[in-house]
Amino acid sequence: MKNKLKGYMPGKATLIQRNRSSKKPNRVIVCCLLTTLSLLFSACTIEKEKPLPIFGERDIVGTDTIYHTIADFKFIDQDSAEVTNNTFKDKIYVADFFFTSCRTICPKMKTQMLRVYDSVENDSDVLLLSHTIDPDYDTVGLLHDFAEKLGVKSDKWHFVTGNKEEIYKIAQTSYFATAMEDKAEPDGFIHSGAFLLIDKQKRIRGKYDGTIEADVNRLLEDIKKLKKEDEKI
After folding, report:
1. Taking a C-beta distance cutoff of 8 angstroms, is the pair 109, 98 a contact?
2. Does an H or E element contain 125, and which?
3. Confidence at residue 191, expressed as pLDDT on a 0 to 100 scale
4. For the segment 97-149, what is each residue's pLDDT rounded down to a tens digit?
5. 211 vs 138: CA distance, rounded Å
6. Nearby residues of 198 by Cβ (< 8 Å), 6 or more positions away
7. 3-state secondary structure the chain
8. How far, in Å, CA of 169 to CA of 197, rounded?
9. How many helices (H) and strands (E) does the chain have?
10. pTM for the model
11. Facing residues of 159 across strands?
């Protein structure tokens, strides 16, 4: 009987089978842990979308930060309507400086601003504001004809005129844009082709070259980002 039982180990096959089967759950657990760690790593490495910058100097008053804002203004648009800061209350807007007789960069700016207009035409949160830097020539009537030829709505895109010195001052000190007379220039004026993105708190949130399509594409994306920022406030 002992010879028959020699080398026989009761439950050996069962034990081996159990050992083999016990490895499967361990592998599943390891795989799950690796997957979880991978997801956590990915979540940590994804950079949160940064808010748009705020341009200009700022002051610290106690625990508050006071940012540069657009100064109060009062101009007249193509419909002879008064346009002030209140016109843009609780609105995002895009501002620029131009003149209707400009033959250099203005045609390119007009084409690109029309793209912006088409993009926000049905968005009640966004307006456009174009200042003429040649108010002596660009009368209200001429601005009206200019806007009419473009086929734009006056309550969406304001073309404004006013006192020349006030226009130059707000361009340079509020919007940080170039706008001045220069007899050495082909049309007698010098101005930047900048498009300025202004938020609902009257702060500059972006500056773009209005003559470059790729930069205006960036403006269109930043308008969307700014709207998302406002939704979180």
Report:
1. yes
2. none
3. 86
4. 999 999 899 999 999 999 999 999 999 999 999 999 999 999 999 999 999 99
5. 22
6. 70, 88, 92, 93, 94, 95, 204, 205
7. CHHHHCCCCCCHHHHHHHHHHHHHHHHHHHHHHHHHHHHHHHHHHCCCCCCCCCCCCEEEECCEEEECCCCCCEEEECCCCEEEHHHHCCCEEEEEEECCCCCCCHHHHHHHHHHHHHHHCCCCCEEEEEEECCCCCCCHHHHHHHHHHHCCCCCCEEEEECCHHHHHHHHHHCCCCCEEECCCCCCCEEECCEEEEECCCCCEEEEEECCCHHHHHHHHHHHHHHHHHHHHC
8. 18
9. 6, 11
10. 0.78
11. 130
Q: Among 1.10.1040.10, 1.10.10.10, 3.40.30.10, 3.40.710.10, what is the CATH number of 58-232?
A: 3.40.30.10
Pick from 192, 188, 164: which is nearest to 178 by CA?
Answer: 192
Residue 178's beta-bridge partner residues?
none
Sign of CA dihedral 141, 147, 150, 155: negative
CB 177 within 8 A of CB 192: yes
Give the number of other Cβ atoms within 10 Å of residue 132's Cβ: 27
Work out whether the CA dihedral 55, 119, 233, 40 comes out positive or negative: negative
**DSSP states of 136-152:** TTS-HHHHHHHHHHHT-
One-letter amino acid for residue 157 of the chain: W
3-state SS class at 76: strand
Sketch the domain layout of the chain as residue ranges.
12-43, 58-232
Which of the pair, 176 or 6, is modelled with greater confidence?
Answer: 176
